């Protein structure tokens, strides 16, 4: 009798374990592949290829949208890319390629902050800087059985559920200067903006209201003003009002280089808009947790006083 009960408990335990798709389950690859194929069919996605590198072992699907050129990327190369991502169930969607979804660093370090499968896809499939691609990463190369993030997967955009494959659009930047300029031009066109002049450095400046003061702003000038800074998704990340004041004051040399360039030569009373390519903003390091690497910024300044 005891042997029968013991055997029954063992069989129940085996049954429970076999029902769970975890990282050690040999069927997880098959499960992922079925989910991806169903997703591709349901969304009428065409042109997707299955990764056959090293004998068809990853289960990654991909489509090259535009092909870059040059030397294939190695894990020791520093790269810059932007991306959007969504889970196949649609409960997590992140499309902010204008700020949040930026990466700059060594290709071999991508998996420190993003899925291992994304690093593999960039190295094995995307291969070249300048390439744009759509890549579906199976869950066992994404965030696995535990998922990622906080809260419940039923809450949109806070948590990636367990065993969720991920649909990425990726653009590996070959020339950051040209990429930033294309982003700025697209923003100006999309928003119907006028009056901006591009400087030799690639900073776009619009003097909405000419100043009436006599003292010209230089790098050592101390100014009082109101200002706002935003990403090109129009999310304001800093401003006089967010600081809880009605006026801001600082020395111009303490600002990012693009803001310095836009303000230099202006006078009290001027209202200036400045669109700053990333190399004259916070560059490839970003700023804290709010501004990612290689982000274009938009500033508005209204200058009240200038002290030289």
TrEMBL record:
The keyword Cell wall biogenesis/degradation does not apply. It is an enzyme of class 5 (isomerase). Gene3D superfamilies: 3.10.50.40. Pfam families: FKBP_C (PF00254). It catalyses: [protein]-peptidylproline (omega=180) = [protein]-peptidylproline (omega=0). It comes from the Bacteria. GO terms for molecular function: peptidyl-prolyl cis-trans isomerase activity. Keywords: Isomerase, Repeat, Rotamase. Residues 76-176, 220-307 form the PPIase FKBP-type domain. Its EC number is 5.2.1.8. Belongs to the FKBP-type PPIase family. This is Peptidyl-prolyl cis-trans isomerase. It comes from Mucilaginibacter gossypii.
